[in-house]
Write a structure and sequence with these properties.
single chain, about 350 residues, alpha+beta, Apoptosis, Tumor Necrosis Factor Receptor Associated Protein 2, Chain A, 2 domains, 7-stranded antiparallel sheet, 6-stranded antiparallel sheet, 7 helices, MATH domain-containing protein, MATH/TRAF_dom
Length: about 350
């Protein structure tokens, strides 16, 4: 068995923001360190709440997971700043999620000049690092605004500076103690350096681990992004991550895929096509996998029925075998002649 992946970066493109502001929205699950993790967003008063949650069903009693993680709300406005929450926390049976009750105000989220809405959806970048048991959890967190340095294009405005914002709080979903970053807590403010982990492939800055996959996609489908509209590299990378996530889902055995997995993949594919990706080929593959899932599900039901019928037949055969042996015994007894003593007695 291979070693479990302890770190992962993933991107969640939310459903339509109008739906998110009236319901709790959940991302697809992402597997890290043998656990399924997902993001959830919901309105609370005048703010949007954002949480990282863990699916505990597959974990043994008394489990705990120490995790460093960050959640970034991406803006497409070059003169504005992303919003980052980063912390190190312990997840357990008592606390299955951590997040922020006041991640961003709804007014700010809707403000067009802030650039948080992309086709009326928000983009969240998540980074998780599940720590080994020996690592001690450091009770510190930082929630602030940042700007990722971008490659300046001809129509780009200048990039804003990183700022701190003391109005954001990190808290447990179970009303655990909360801590805010004050203006004097310089030790909690992490300097954000220009990222050096990405490589440009056909106009997309992708992580080094994705270079081979993205290069092959463009080799097979060179016109895939000719009509792709976003220019912000964070947003471009976010959508590319979503494309890779769909392909990763479709590479799984239909037996392991749920109906929700395929439904989420179909919704994400529609989002990608909506922003300009040419993905007719992927739609065909998704339909193929969906059909295979239907057949697999139907075959599973038929196999179960046949196994039940076979079990009944085996029981009938066993009962018939028992009756046969009893009948043979009676026949043998009937054929046996009486002895002299049997007659005379």
């Amino acid at each position: 068995m291979g070693q479990q992946q302890m770190e992962k970066k993933f991107t969640w493109v939310s459903p339509n923001i109008s739906y998110c502001l009236g319901n709790t929205c959940y991302s697809p699950p992402y597997s890290v360190a043998g656990c399924d993790w997902y993001l959830s967003a919901c309105p609370k008063g005048d703010y949007l709440c954002l949480y990282l949650e863990l699916e505990p069903e597959s974990l043994p009693p008394g489990w705990t997971r120490d995790v460093k993680f960050s959640l970034t709300l991406v803006t497409k406005a070059f003169s504005k700043s992303n919003i980052l929450m980063q912390t190190q926390r312990c997840f357990s049976e008592e606390i299955e999620g951590w997040g922020c009750d006041k991640f961003v105000s709804l007014a700010k989220l809707r403000e067009r000049s802030e650039g948080f809405l992309v086709n009326n959806k928000i983009i969240i970048l998540a980074e998780l690092h599940v720590l080994p048991p020996a690592v001690v959890v450091v009770p510190q967190e930082t929630v602030k605004k940042i700007t990722e340095p971008l490659s300046i294009q001809a129509d780009d405005a200048s990039v804003g500076k990183s700022q701190r914002d003391s109005s954001y709080q990190v808290k447990s979903l179970e009303d655990a103690s909360q801590t805010s970053v004050s203006e004097t807590d310089n030790s909690l403010i992490t300097k954000i350096q220009p990222t050096k982990e990405t490589i440009a492939i056909s106009g997309f800055d992708v992580y080094s681990s994705q270079v081979e996959s993205v290069s092959y996609i463009f080799k097979r489908h060179p016109d895939i992004a000719l009509n792709f509209r976003p220019k912000n590299q964070q947003i471009r990378r976010a959508y590319m991550n979503e494309l890779l996530n769909i392909i990763e889902v479709l590479c799984q055995s239909p037996e392991k895929l749920s109906e929700d997995d395929l439904s989420n993949a179909n919704d994400t594919l529609a989002d990608l096509i909506d922003v300009g990706f040419k993905l007719d080929w992927l739609k065909i593959k998704l339909d193929v996998v969906s059909e295979k899932k239907k057949k697999e599900k139907g075959s599973e039901a038929r196999l179960r029925t046949m196994e039940e019928q076979l079990q009944k037949l085996k029981l009938m055969l066993l009962d018939l075998e028992t009756q046969l042996q009893m009948e043979k015994a009676e026949a043998l007894a009937a054929r046996a002649p009486l002895s002299f003593n049997d007659i005379v007695c």
